[in-house]
Structures are given as C-alpha cells and as structure tokens.
Write a structure and sequence with these properties.
The chain is of the alpha/beta class. The chain has a single domain, classed as HUPs (Rossmann fold), CATH 3.40.50. 37% of the residues lie in helices and 10% in strands. Helix 1 packs across helix 6 and helix 6 crosses helix 7.
Length: 230
C-alpha cells in the first residue's frame, strides 16, 4: 500500500535499523527531521534473534506503526558465507586491526540491504534512506566509505523511476563511536535497548570487535553502558 510522504509535513524516510548502537542513533536523528519507516533485514547472522528483539524494542520506543515497519530475511548471505557473522566455522575476531578487512565483513552486505530499502522507498514514496554506516570505526569495510555511498546514490538516481527523488544519507559516517554515544544521549535515544555483540544472544561477550569498540565509546563519553555483559 502506498503512503503519502506528506505525513506531519516532515517527509517520509526509511531507516535501516539493525538494533545496534549506530542504527539506533541514526533512527533518533532521522526522527527529528522526518516521519520514519523502519526496515530490519536478517541475514542469518549469529545474533539475528537478539538483534530483531532490539529492533522491535526500538520501534516500540519511537511508536512507529506496523504500517511503516518492514522486517524481512535474506538467508542466502549465510549460504554465500565468507564472514564470521554468517559462517559458524569462522571464529569471531577478538582483535581490532587497521591492516586488513576483518572477518566480520559480510561481502557486499550493505548493497543488498539498501536495494531492499530503495525498492520499498519507491512504493511508499520515501525521499530519504538513512543508514548508520561509520567510516572511522568500520576498519576497511568497503561498503562503509563515503565513495561507496556517492556511487550508490548515482545508481539510485539512474535505476529508479524518473518521478522519484530518493537519497541515501549517512549522518554518522565521519563520527567516532564516542561521538555517536554522545549524540544518542543528546537525542534521548534508547541506547539501553541496543545490541552490538557479534557472538552472543544472551549477554554481550565484551571481547569481540564490536563489543570492544562499544565499551571504549561509552567509557570515552563518560556514560554507563547498561546492557548486560558476561
């Protein structure tokens, strides 16, 4: 069903909400400027069920109606493999390195997620697609760089109906993790509802790359991280 983008005269924007810290703060930013619709895509990652729980909790926090929520799955990324997030035989990295692409990189993942978002945006007439990509803290992830999003927006321009005007925006791209935490606090984002751990669904491991970056960010921001850790 098509939905007018004149809701509240703010324009309609889709937010890719994984349930993690970055996507939650991105949701908070988008919510200040637009009427938001939320997209969650599971790809058989290790913590898919826990991330979905966070997604639902954040959606409830922002009172987004079901008509503006899309949750779907693309299990083929786990069949393709090549990432510690989707292949249980590949161990999750416990060290942060800037020398090579980490094993947590899911090959070309963001392109798959954004393609779904663009398709949905054409139907519901959304004008923006928000994604919480972070260039500084996503070491060598090819699909977290500014040039990737510049190229993707060119693709959207030539690959959608001439009557559409959809743009992918990345408000966190040049922020570091502590700045993201501070921005979340400023916007009263529900950071306690988010999940960042790459490995566990019950309690955060505190040791994987994502947990390490998160813990340091909260420490640097002088804020207590209220999610449970092992």
């Amino acid at each position: 069903m098509e939905e007018s983008n004149s809701l509240d005269n703010k324009g309609l924007a889709i937010v890719l909400l994984s349930g993690g810290l970055d996507s939650c703060v991105t949701t908070a930013i988008a919510n200040t400027e637009h009427t938001i619709a939320l997209l969650h895509v599971g790809y058989s990652q290790r913590t898919q069920s826990r991330e979905y729980k966070s997604f639902r909790a954040i959606a409830n926090y922002y009172k987004v109606p079901e008509a503006r929520i899309l949750s779907t799955k693309i299990d083929y990324l786990s069949k393709i493999g090549g990432s510690s997030l989707t292949d249980p035989d590949i161990p999750v990295d416990k060290e942060i390195t800037t020398r090579q692409i980490p094993m947590s990189y899911v090959p070309f993942r963001n392109t798959h997620l954004l393609s779904i978002a663009v398709s949905w945006a054409e139907v519901i007439r959304a004008e923006k697609i928000y994604i919480g990509a972070v260039q500084q803290d996503s070491y060598d992830y090819p699909d977290c760089r500014a040039e990737y999003y510049d190229a993707y927006n060119r693709l959207v321009e030539v690959g959608t109906k001439p009557t559409t005007n959809i743009k992918v925006v990345t408000p966190l791209l040049n922020m570091n993790k502590s700045e993201i935490v501070k921005k979340g606090i400023e916007l009263t984002a529900p950071l306690n509802l988010t999940w960042s751990c790459y490995e566990r669904n019950d309690m955060a491991c505190g040791r994987c790359q994502s947990c390490t970056l998160r813990l340091k960010a909260f420490t640097d921001a002088g804020v207590e991280d209220k999610i449970p850790y092992v």
